[in-house]
Amino acid sequence: MKNYLHDYLLKLIDSGVEPVFNSVACRYGECTIYCLIKPPENILQLTFAPVKHEFLQNRLKRFSRKVRITKLQQQQFQYDKIFAGYFSGKHTTFSLALDSPLLAAGTDFQQKVWHQINAIPYGETITYQKLAQLAGSPKGSRAAGMACGANPLSLIIPCHRVVSVKGLGGFAGGVEVKKSLLTLEQSKKSTVSRKD
């Protein structure tokens, strides 16, 4: 991913696009999402883990002195209504373009895993073992779990819907956040429309 990010920044700069990224932390009930928006305006990373958010910002700054990170307030966040709709149970899907360069930077296996995660219906779960099978690696449940942890677009690619055969399993944003997301979805599943 290191070289991929570097190449992405070089392409931006060479094309005359100023590498200014917007960083925002948004609170929805008990959950806080941390989002980094890339030029042109689209989501580069969405995470529940502030450490991952800070790590990516520092990495981008190390690649080029031209990189600037601008902090936005929640009310300035152009996707706030979309995420508020999800957390209020009004929306079950996200009508957002998935063109983060971090997706393209994933390994072939990670990309297969992310594709399969994206197919898990709202309010449902599958195990890491099943996810590994769907991604073409029946014995790769641990690798599937690591691919979940590397998911650059948490919630949009709903890795919280992947659980262990023995319980919830891990989550980069913390097990309590995962639990609350699953509880929200399961409680709203029968009462909400699948359309945005």
Keywords:
2 domains; 196 residues; 41% helix; four-stranded mixed beta sheet; Arc Repressor Mutant, subunit A; two-stranded parallel ribbon; 16% strand; alpha/beta; 6 strands; Signal recognition particle alu RNA binding heterodimer, srp9/1
What do these coordinates show?
The protein is of the alpha/beta class and 196 residues long. The protein folds into 2 domains: 86 residues, Signal recognition particle alu RNA binding heterodimer, srp9/1 (2-Layer Sandwich); 84 residues, Arc Repressor Mutant, subunit A. The chain contains 8 helices and 6 strands. The strands form 2 sheets. A 4-stranded mixed β-sheet has the order 3-2-1-4, with helices on both faces. It has a two-stranded parallel sheet with strand order 5-6. A hairpin with a 3-residue loop joins strand 2 and strand 3. Helix 6 crosses helix 7. The longest helix has 14 residues. The mean pLDDT is 92.
Work out the oligomeric state of the chains in this entry: single chain
Helicity range: 40-55%
The biggest sheet, with number of strands, parallel, antiparallel or mixed sense and barrel status, is: 4 strands, mixed
User: What structural class do you assign from the helix and strand content?
Assistant: alpha/beta
**What is the CATH-assigned architecture of the largest domain?**
2-Layer Sandwich
Q: Quote the average pLDDT.
A: 92
- Tell me what portion of residues adopts beta-strand conformation: 15-25%
Taking all Cα atoms into account, the compactness measure Rg is: 17 Å
Number of helices: 8
What is the distance, rounded to the nearest whole angstrom, between the alpha carbons of the first and last residues?
33 Å
Q: Using the coordinates shown, work out and report the CATH topology of the largest domain.
A: Signal recognition particle alu RNA binding heterodimer, srp9/1
Can you tell me the CATH class of the largest domain?
A: Alpha Beta
- How many runs of DSSP E, i.e. beta strands? 6
